[in-house]
Amino acid sequence: MKMWVSFVGIGLMVLSAVLIMVTRTKTKGWLRFVLSLVAFVMLLVGMVCGLISII
Predict the structure, then answer these.
(1) d(CA 24, CA 31)
(2) What is the DSSP annotation of the chain?
(3) Are residues 5 and 55 in contact, defined by beta-carbon separation less than 8 angstroms?
(4) What φ, ψ does residue 33 adopt, rounded to 5°?
(5) pLDDT by residue for the chain (55 residues), tens digit each?
(6) How far is 3 from 8, CA to CA, in rounded Å?
(7) In whole angstroms, what is the distance from residue 39 CA to residue 27 CA?
(8) Residue 55 has what pLDDT?
(9) What whole-number distance in Å separates Cα of residue 28 and Cα of residue 48?
């Protein structure tokens, strides 16, 4: 079970990194803010999943 939680955390962190790179190069205005916020939330959830898999 911990392995799958860890995989989900890693996947969310990778997706958030890709999303932030695309957001910073391709968008402007409020869409950029919203997508950056989504990427930040994904990063935090990925971090929590990583911490859960360690414990």
Answers:
(1) 10
(2) -HHHHHHHHHHHHHHHHHHHHHHHHH--THHHHHHHHHHHHHHHHHHHHHHHHH-
(3) no
(4) -65, -45
(5) 889 999 999 999 999 999 999 999 999 999 999 999 999 999 999 999 999 999 8
(6) 9
(7) 14
(8) 86
(9) 29
Asked if 50 and 11 touch (Cβ cutoff 8 Å), the reply is no
The amino acid that residue 11 corresponds to is G
* Buried/exposed code over 26-47 (b: 16+ C-beta within 10 A; e: otherwise): eeeeeeeeebbeebeebbeebe
Tokens of 48: 């929590």
User: Residue 1 is encoded by which pair of tokens?
Assistant: 């079970």
